[in-house]
Amino acid sequence: xxxxxxxxxxxxxxxxxxxxxxxxxxxxxxxxxxxxxxxxxxxxxxxxxxxxxxxxxxxxxxxxxxxxxxxxxxxxxxxxxxxxxxxxxxxxxxxxxxxxxxxxxxxxxxxxxxxxxxxxxxxxxxxxxxxxxxxxxxxxxxxxxxxxxxxxxxxxxxxxxxxxxxxxxxxxxxxxxxxxxxxxxxxxxxxxxxxxxxxxxxxxxxxxxxxxxxxxxxxxxxxxxxxxxxxxxxxxxxxxxxxxxxxxxxxxxxxxxxxxxxxxxxxxxxxxxxxxxxxxxxxxxxxxxxxxxxxxxxxxxxxxxxxxxxxxxxxxxxxxxxxxxxxxxxxxxxxxxxxxxxxxxxxxxxxxxxxxxxxxxxxxxxxxxxxxxxxxxxxxxxxxxxxxxxxxxxxxxxxxxxxxxxxxxxxxxxxxxxxxxxxxxxxxxxxxxxxxxxxxxxxxxxxxxxxxxxxxxxxxxxxxxxxxxxxxxxxxxxxxxxxxxxxxxxxxxxxxxxxxxxxxxxxxxxxxxxxx
Length: 516
Fold this sequence. Notes:
Blueprint: E1 2-4, H1 8-11, H2 16-26, E2 32-34, H3 40-44, E3 47-49, H4 56-69, H5 75-81, E4 82-83, H6 85-92, H7 97-104, H8 108-121, E5 126-128, H9 138-151, H10 172-175, H11 184-187, H12 204-213, E6 221-225, H13 229-232, H14 236-245, E7 248-253, H15 258-261, E8 265-268, E9 277-279, E10 287-291, H16 304-315, H17 326-333, H18 340-346, E11 348-350, H19 358-361, E12 370-371, H20 377-380, E13 400-404, H21 418-423, E14 428-431, H22 433-438, E15 446-451, E16 454-462, E17 470-474, H23 488-491
Parallel strand pairs: 1-2, 1-5, 2-3, 4-12, 6-7, 7-8, 13-17, 14-16
Antiparallel strand pairs: 9-10, 10-11, 14-17, 15-16
Helix pairs in contact: 4-7, 4-8, 4-9, 7-8, 12-14
């Protein structure tokens, strides 16, 4: 198992993924961890690759170089089920462990050891975390990782990276009523920005461009639920300007977050324990979880699912919506012969285990194979093969900045809970003792973290779990105890006051949140 840019025993919801992972390790599975920080999982690994933040694509391409040059790949799968292998061979030839060691900070012999261990495992799986998707080169990184899975024959096999089979449920296209908006893919804000075809979520960088620059058309109102974009979007000051320019902003939340504080209307939401819901639908996990409410929401608090339904009844034809949102849950479960009430008695639904489905249907690509080289790259203006372009250095900013999630909080939530604040009362930035000494910073001392985009203040926590020259800033920090009108409430320690939307990866609209 390769855990790449993730920390599943500390951050995965419900503990399910972390529990399954630990069970496999207890049964003897080998573990490779790719992480700039020595997490508990990295301490348990057979091989820990302490990669430089932001260089994951270079490391993955170097591992492909080893596997291909040493003929460790699965020739049968490559020959029958991949497209563009020869082009990939040519592409990775220059990504030798020696060359990429300088870029990634990982010694060449460790790159080779990890590549050989994964290629010879048969099967092996790669579990990547959010960090992989927080770069401008996310498209290249994820494609390089999928290429690793493919050339080693680890796709849709037991113990590999499977395509889960869903239990009986309402089809996603029917659920979102895609047929009622057939032109949606061509009309979405980012449709003319060079993103991948049919990307069905709007990247924040293009939403704010539509508000501030009215491109490709103006956006003058927004409704926000389950989100705190003033803290979560790259370049928080840009987000503030966009929210201020809106004619109307409504927010649904359980607490007066910095985003809710600037809204025209705040709708009090129910918590996840206060409404009936179905978990994991639409995520491709092959499982549905019953989530019945534990208590009734207090006062005027209402579930987001109910608020959306009521807004739909007022903005559209009421016939397209539901008298009660439970009807939607019942419709989702109807193919399984269940309603929500009977589903709660079962607890969950899981799809049957079936593997190597591609042998009967092929892969869902134009060639019917895993496209190591994209067959329609030119048509969509996309790079045909994964690559890594090293970002330029900056002599005025010699350290490397990244971030990680705090185990006591969820993104920007829960700083208002006194019990949790006692566990982590201040935003703590991790810094190596050698770097701290060079910068004359003491443990527990407030320090300024500055990039070309801005500066914040956090408290230093000296640790040897990271390399010298790297700083891990705390993410999602704001101060609920400060007055809502005080901008320091969200600016003082906010990691995204240090990030920018310049040079985003156009395929997904992803900014650099790591390796700054």
